[in-house]
Amino acid sequence: MGLWIDTDMGFDDLAAVLVLTNAGKSIDGMSLIAGNSPLSTVRANAASAAKTFGWDFPIYTGREHAVMGGLETAERILGPKGMLSSGKHLPDCAPIAENSAFDALCTWLDASSTDGDDKHILALGPLGNLAALVLARPDLAGKIDQVTWMGGAAGRGNHTALAEYNAFADPEALAILLAHIVPVRMVELDLCRSVLAVPSDVDPIRNTGGKNAELLADLTAGYIDIGISRGRSGMAIFDPLAAVTLVDRDVVTFVDAHIAVDTSNGVARGQTHIERVEPGTAKRNGQFGLGVDANRARSIIFDALKAEAAK
Q1: I need a labelling partner for 278 at 20 to 30 A (CA). Which of 58, 73, 126, 184 fits?
Q2: Are 148 and 251 in contact (CB under 8 A)?
Q3: What is the pLDDT of residues 158-167, one digit of tens each?
Q4: What is the Cα–Cα distance from 118 to 147, expressed in whole angstroms?
């Protein structure tokens, strides 16, 4: 399987990559997009993560604004670095070079006619890079076998009362993918809320004693503190859960759906509407995760973090 990651590189994005690499998954490339943080911060985080954890796949620079312009970040929650920490942060590093994510995605998809691989994209942020591809090169977009996207919400939102952040940040991008019947598989907010990172998860990472153990433990603790500061027992695991679905097909149960997104400028902007439909019906335009084995998902995620921390 050919695998590409599209990301706005916060801590849970980083953890998602570690889930894949710990499982031995080969990553063909990564495209960056503004989202949790402005693109400059995303590029710096990606460069530092690649150097720190030894990622050898190519990384490309994508969009810095939503499809219709503007930028909605989560800096008010995640801070100016795009990652909170109880201590250590990723070391300062020169940002990724401004090489074109659009061109790289086109080249990767075009290769499907010769390499024979399925083309699967794990999307962990707003969908503007993929929407740009769909509009400019629908012939290549048709070669995407699956987009697994952490985004949307079947119930209440987290960035607004009704909208999940990745959907709210660029609802037009999601609408474009859905309108062009790109095979989107949603790992949505309510599903992620079933899988929590809790304070007792930190010390086992720290105690592995590897060169990045303190860093990963501090970043994990900073992430968990987001939930704790809001009176919860822990923090929902978002992007790593989407990655888990590529490692163990039985962890999440996906069902066919009709998915729509509100692109108005009103209070419902970014709200996703998910209707389960029978397989094969004309109304179907995607899938969403209906259920999850939370214990199995947690085991895969934290085994990956501890394995990386032990190196």
Answers
A1: 126
A2: no
A3: 999 999 999 9
A4: 11
